[in-house]
Design brief:
By secondary structure, this protein is an alpha+beta fold. The protein has three helices and four strands, in the order E-H-E-H-E-E-H.
């Protein structure tokens, strides 16, 4: 879905035991609604998909990767608040 998307895709690398991942969950939900039609938001559980996390050199979670046309164009590590996350996304749109 990420590689074939015609819109930009945000992928959050997370795990259920990660406190900061739980903190950013509502922020990702708000951002998903805010950028409807411009950005797809997805989550990838690093415990369930360790090979993909390794492929993208995920060393800390939460990590957010942004893909455009199937290519990773940027990333950010940590639990961002809504203002910082939207600033990050707006810079890439």
């Amino acid at each position: 879905m990420v590689m074939e998307s015609d819109t930009m895709v945000l992928v959050e690398f997370w795990a259920p035991w990660c406190g900061p991942c739980r903190m950013i969950l509502p922020v990702i939900g708000e951002v998903s609604k805010l950028y409807t039609g411009k950005l797809k938001c997805m989550k990838l559980n690093t415990d369930d998909c360790p090979d993909i996390a390794t492929q993208y050199a995920i060393r800390s979670i939460p990590t957010i990767l942004i893909f455009k046309n199937g290519e990773k164009i940027d990333s950010v590590v940590g639990a961002l608040d809504k203002e910082k996350l939207t600033t990050f996304i707006d810079r890439l749109l």
